[in-house]
Structure formats: structure tokens, C-alpha cells
Amino acid sequence: MIPEVKNAMGNKLILIIGDLANLRAKLHTNVLTDSQQILSESRSIEADLIAWLAAVPPDFIFSSHSITPEDQSFERRCHGITAYNNEYHIYSDIWAPNCWNHYRCARIFVSELILSQVNKMPQTSPTIMSEDIRFYCKSLRSTISHLAADICRSVPFHLGACNAEVPPGTPAIPPESYLGGLMLLWPLFVAGIVEGPNHPQRRWVIHCLQIIGNTWGLAQALATMDILNVDPGMFHCVGRSCQTTGSGIKSPKLFPVSVYQMSYHRLPEMKQYRELQASSA
């Protein structure tokens, strides 16, 4: 069902994501600890992702749109979800945004990995943080924010809110289909943890997961929502300066460390910690 060119692009992306997963596994098991080597391998994966982006075929390209004041039915078509910052994307088919979101997640992860390693390096080499590196780190943080926002902008298309606007010949996404919601679970989690708990983007993602979970009966969406409600964010260990916080929202009781930073075998510790917090409240 997937054209050969798209299939090849998907396979290439899977291989790059596999390299990133292997690198993260080596970090979690302390097989690799040298910051310079970690940085070198991370930059190599970043280069592969940029090369993948440069080779994207024309029918993978998406268009950006804004909600007009006249379109009062958009939220209803999107099952009660408003477009993030009133912007959304139109893609050629349902597989294109799924592939794009996997790219966005991988690029976010490798960018965060580079930032975390650069953050450690000045502790042993105070002169390493040149102006060029500072600018590079700032651009990485900007890239992470932009990619996370693009994940959010793909939500209406996934949920069938844009069927009336898709190009002729594009397979429509049935409004009652849970496929789009299922595809969004992982990307929405990633988009949620790039900002602090009080950031409007985090709150918007949590609302989306609540709608997806309750509308299509996807319990995993509600479980992911619960994690985002108490996760401090992927930049929690780097410092408050890397986070953007909203205002007017009371901070929840958070995990001591982001789930993103943990090995999967330590997740039960988070559950026990949360249960202990709840019992002492």
C-alpha cells in the first residue's frame, strides 16, 4: 500500500532511529561514558537525520494553515481539540505525518543528547563554551521547540479534522477511526516533555491525550496523560534555564527525575514513588 519511495524513506529513518536507540542504550548501561565520544556519535546521528530531511520526496511535503475566524466547526471536527496556536498541517496521506513525527521525535532526542553532553563539558573544560557553541546550543533548543510544535500541528490531520481540505485523491481519515489517535500517542508524549509542567504546550498535549483516550477508548493515552501530569520534563536535569514555564497554573507534585532520563527497568520505582506521594498527601 505504501509507494516504493516512501517505503525506502521509512526504512532509512528506522535505521537512523535504531542507531539512536543503540547509543541511548549504551549510555543507560554505562558502556559509553566519555562526553566527547557521546557528542561525536550524537552529531553523526544528527547529520544522518538532516540528510534524511534533505532527501524527502515532494509528496512528503506538508503545508501549514491557520484557523480562520469563519471556521467555527474546526474544533467539532477535531473532537473538541483546538488547533495548537491556531495552526495545523495538511499532508498527502496518513502515513506521511506518521513518518514526519518519528523524524521529529528522533531529532528532538538527539538534540537533547547533544545539549546534555555540552552542558557537562564546561565542568572539566571551562574554555570549551565558545560563542559558536553557545549559539549552536541555542539553535538546538529552538529546533526542539519548533519540532515539538510541529507534532502538535499534525494532530488535526491525524484525527480527520482536515478531510475537506486534503488534495484530490488523498485517502480520507474516517472521523470515527482510532488509527490517527494511536499514531499520536508517542509523538504527543515527546512533545509534552520538551517543556515544563506549566507550559501551555504541555497542558494542550495533556488535553489531547484525554480526548483521544476517552473518545476511542485508548487507555494508553490516559496513562501517558497521567505521566505528563507529574513529569518534570526532559530538561529538568539540565536546569531551570532550559525550560519555559507558563503562568497562573499551580505546579503539580512532580517526579524527582524525568521518565525520559530513566531506564525502563527503573520505571517501577516511579510508580512506588508516586504511590508514596499520594499516601502522604
Strand content: under 5%
Round the Cα radius of gyration to an integer and report it.
20 Å
The secondary structure category is mainly alpha
On the 0-100 scale, what is the average pLDDT? 84
Contiguous helical run count: 10
Can you tell me about this structure?
InterPro entries: DHMBA_Reg_Transcription_Factor. The protein is globular. Strands 1-2 form a two-stranded antiparallel ribbon. With 281 residues, the chain is mainly alpha-helical. It has one domain. It contains ten helices and two strands. Helix 2 runs antiparallel to helix 4, helix 5 runs antiparallel to helix 7 and helix 7 packs antiparallel against helix 8.
Short summary:
The chain is mostly helical and 281 residues long.
Write the layout of secondary structure elements.
Elements: H1 4-28, H2 35-54, E1 63-66, H3 74-77, E2 87-90, H4 95-120, H5 131-153, H6 155-158, H7 179-193, H8 200-216, H9 219-230, H10 267-280
Antiparallel strand pairs: 1-2
Task: Spell out the key features of this protein.
3% strand, two-stranded antiparallel ribbon, single chain, mainly alpha, globular, 281 residues
